[in-house]
Amino acid sequence: MTRGCALAREGVDVVDISSSSPITRAEQGGAATARAALPLIAEIDCAAWRDLAGRAIEPNAYYLPEWTIAANGDRRARAVTRALTAHDTAGALTGLLPVLSAWHGFRLPLPVLVAADPFRSLDTPLLDHDTADRAAAVMIAQARASGARALLLREVARDGEAVQVFSRAAAAEGLAPVLLRGWSRACLDATSDADELLRDALGGKRLKEYRRLMRRLGDHGEVRFTVARTPDAVAQAYEVFLALEASGWKGRRGTALLHQPELAARLRTAATSLATRNACEIALLHAGNAAIAAGIVLRHCDRAYFFKLGIAESFARYSPGVLLTLELTRHLCADPAITMADSTASPDHPMIDPIWRGRFAVGDLLIPLRPRDPLFGPITLALRAREALRQTAKRLLKR
């Protein structure tokens, strides 16, 4: 390797999963080991992937094949985004987790595999509900065989079944995972009555104010809440979303999807493809002929995921994002197929936290891949230091 990493100079393996062929190298003890190459995510059979998603022990719409491949679809990501996989004796896919090396994910020369997700939405691995324990064990072994010393599951459901399964598989090998960071974000109990839920969350006075804003919106024409579900409708609504998102602060900062045309095009294709399987819909709020808010919602099994929201800032005094979220709450609670919706929002989000009062516990879980590995402590410290710097930078940016 040519990265000049201190760990490499001391003869310690630094994982490089960008290689398309196994690498043979002497470890510190002098024994030769052949690193197993991991497949590129683009090489995974999409039909088998979709079949696994339908059998998953825990849902995660952000790891549906169309979305994952689109999100990680630029030239660089296609070359370095790989997958931990497991198969049963008949060859069926039973486990899948997209991964990057720490170098490609963080620019840190650490022997760590990191769950891949450029949006940092939800990285819960897909595991077959009948063979989840075996699949997790196989994936841990596969990560170790690649040369990694740790596996970082970012943004995973802390109380979810997938984390429990991976924790059991690790414990069976004498490995003790470490929670690097834990937090909670807003979620919706969609089994509740929407009106009761909103009344409990916001109180009568605030709900009355939002009804007043709805009436004031009527001065601009008929107020309509609609949900695009068919591929053609989703494609059209996606363009509306792009324009709304770019009209606000994300557009001014240059981070709106419309300013990333290749990514926007890939996600458009993914959204319309997912719509054919009822896995993507776009909620819209109109005032007369003008769309004033749009939200992309992904669906997987019994869960919905609020991916992104765009609003017309010219209507900001009417709180269009809040009004759309109120109507989306009623829409999801009325859908018997959905039991929970993940806001995918940052902690303490000022808009959605007061409306969706449920809390979804997520976190970054670091799993060692060798018992009593002397490198695991330094790796943990390095990753915690990086996260602390990232959080500090976010706070300074907000100021």
Tell me what the structure shows.
The chain is an alpha+beta fold. 39% of the residues lie in helices and 24% in strands. Strands 3, 4, 5, 6, 7, 8, 9, 10, 11, 12, 13 and 14 form a 12-stranded mixed sheet that branches. A two-stranded antiparallel sheet has the order 1-2. A hairpin with a 5-residue loop joins strand 3 (82-87) and strand 4 (93-101). The chain is globular, with a radius of gyration of 22 Å. The model is unreliable at 1-34 (pLDDT under 50).
Compute the number of strand runs.
Answer: 14
List the domain count as a whole number.
2
Instruction: Give the overall silhouette.
Output: globular
Low-confidence stretches: 1-34
Order of helices and strands: HEEHHHEEHEEHEHEHEHHHEEEHEEH
- Mean pLDDT, all residues: 90
The whole-angstrom Rg is 22 Å
The amount of helix comes to 25-40%
Tell me the distance between the termini: 41 Å
Quick rundown:
The protein has 399 residues and is of the alpha+beta class.
In terms of topology, how is this protein built?
Layout: H1 6-9, E1 24-26, E2 32-34, H2 46-54, H3 65-71, H4 75-80, E3 82-87, E4 93-101, H5 102-106, E5 112-115, E6 126-127, H6 132-145, E7 150-157, H7 161-172, E8 178-189, H8 194-217, E9 223-228, H9 231-246, H10 249-253, H11 261-275, E10 280-287, E11 290-300, E12 303-311, H12 320-333, E13 340-342, E14 358-368, H13 376-398
Parallel strand pairs: 5-7, 12-13
Antiparallel strand pairs: 1-2, 3-4, 4-5, 4-6, 7-14, 8-13, 8-14, 9-10, 10-11, 11-12
